Amino acid sequence: MTTQGVRDDLLAHDALELRAKLFRGLGDPSRLAILDALVSDECSVQEVVGHTGLGQPNVSNNLRCLLDCGLVSRRSEGRFVRYRLADRRVAELIRAADRLLASTATGLGDCERYTE
Amino acid sequence: MTTQGVRDDLLAHDALELRAKLFRGLGDPSRLAILDALVSDECSVQEVVGHTGLGQPNVSNNLRCLLDCGLVSRRSEGRFVRYRLADRRVAELIRAADRLLASTATGLGDCERYTE
DNA sequence: CTGACGTATCAGTGGATAATGATATGACGA
DNA sequence: TCGTCATATCATTATCCACTGATACGTCAG
After folding, report:
1. B80 touches chain A (CB under 8 A)
2. Do the interacting molecules here have an ipTM over 0.95?
3. Per the database record, which ranges form the HTH arsR-type domain (chains A, B) (predicted)?
4. A25 min Cα distance to partner chain B (Å)
5. Of B48, B67, B38, which Cα lies nearest the Cα of A6?
6. A100, B22: Cβ pair inside 8 Å?
7. Which CATH number fits domain B17-103: 1.10.10.10, 3.40.50.620, 1.20.58.100, 3.40.50.2300?
């Protein structure tokens, strides 16, 4: 094993970081709950709060995060702001994860490295 | 808005947690680097260490995590242990993430909620 | 204009967790 | 058997980050 492999991967380091960041963005129950609410419908912040049971600042913070990441889009309507998924690929990625959970990623609940 | 929506989502709470856990599992640069090494080939721990530049205990810890989660499988061979992706769906999920990054999730680098 | 409502922002804090160093375990060769 | 190599485990530490409460901003109704 030369050090070549190492150097190659270090070059791809930024790509890995970006991937990781995307997955971490999706790796939060609050954000997933918000996305889940938006899968069905375009929603105002209050509606998301109602669907998820999360606090309003929490929802707003996370929506901003999702917006910055490009996963949702927003649209002002009077004093309401309505959010929706930016792209159906977002929902597709979540479905792909569900398929993985159903098939091979069984026992994920048992992994004790991080909390369920 | 009734409380019905809230109750429904609370019922699905465990599913959300599980999704989140899977994404968090993939949301770590070290684990992604490890998976990246395994995409090409079955690898021993040392080979993964070489590919990624990570420390050996770090790699072992994360491989155990990935194994528990069912994302990789292992096979003993003398004093070596060879790991591989458990399923091609794992690689597919990562590719789906890359597609999202290329198309709609632009600006993820600018999201300041968490570090890049 | 004023009060109520919807949303956004921000600092503080507690909890989670990734990486490391030390060490243990197990297998091979001499 | 002894030393070496490959891997695993574990406690510690330092960091990161999600949530909350307080508050600000903007919009509409009366």
Report:
1. no
2. no
3. 11-105
4. 8
5. B48
6. yes
7. 1.10.10.10
